[in-house]
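One thing: can you check what follows?
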Amino acid sequence: MSALIQANNLHRYYGETLAVNNVSIELHQGEILALLGPNGAGKSTCLQMLCGVLAPSEGEIIINGVDLLDNPNIAKKNIGYLPDKPPLYPELTVAEYLTYAAQLRRVNASQIKDLLKQAIQQCGLEGYNHRLIANLSKGYQQRVGIAQAIIHQPEVIILDEPTVGLDPIQILEIRKLILQLGEQHGIILSTHILPEVQAVCNRVQMIHHGKSVINKKLSELKQSNQVNLRLQNTTDIEQLKLLPGVTSVSEVSAKRYILSGENLDSSLADISKYCVEKNWGLLEISPVENTLEQVFLNLTSGDNTIAAQVTQDAA
């Protein structure tokens, strides 16, 4: 399946400052990609280049088979964008604003009525057509912002901080909406709310100092190559290092250890068998999962573990 977005080797300079350094981004239909990174990492610049708001200093961007730089008007028909501050006109009603958004997108006049109805239904705005945007809650204003991004039924939807400032119920509703949209579209989601990424995204790309340092499926990112081991009997650490696939051992408390090594998930049965044969009294064995918070914090603090991972991903 061809990619909806194929952005290759993007660079962006502001004067002499290199804000984005050789970043490539790929997105497919049915995929929800989280674009993460600390403030100033280059995420917003990447999003603006993908939307055609900024031209890259170097690199190419192909949107659904169309070169964004060579044919911007055609390529942008495939893009829907919700910036971190939704571009709403509070003095308009929902229907007036979405009609205006459709006209800006050069939607055929004969199609606007049907597309308006479809966007309102998709975003749960039924009954709000004639309400002034100024009188809507922030959660419903976000829904209107998403509706303007999909009014022309684009293949690609780019959402920048779509749940900032919402209450917990509104956040859950917007996440549900994103998941529904992700079934038919390709979505790029930029957010600082890491539980949101775990709730809706299936792939994570992290930008740090303008470079793409991690690009993995969420399930792969959680794998840590570590195992929890709890024994009934005291055991010498040097003996534990002889376990299948284990390269290092750390004792976290009495008779509880963290085993490290390559592909330890596939060695759990052999490790269990070895512990039983040694009569160590195996009480617990389970893989350790990375959390997205740990990966993000290690990345931004320059932890050596994540540095090794960055090298592996970039290779």
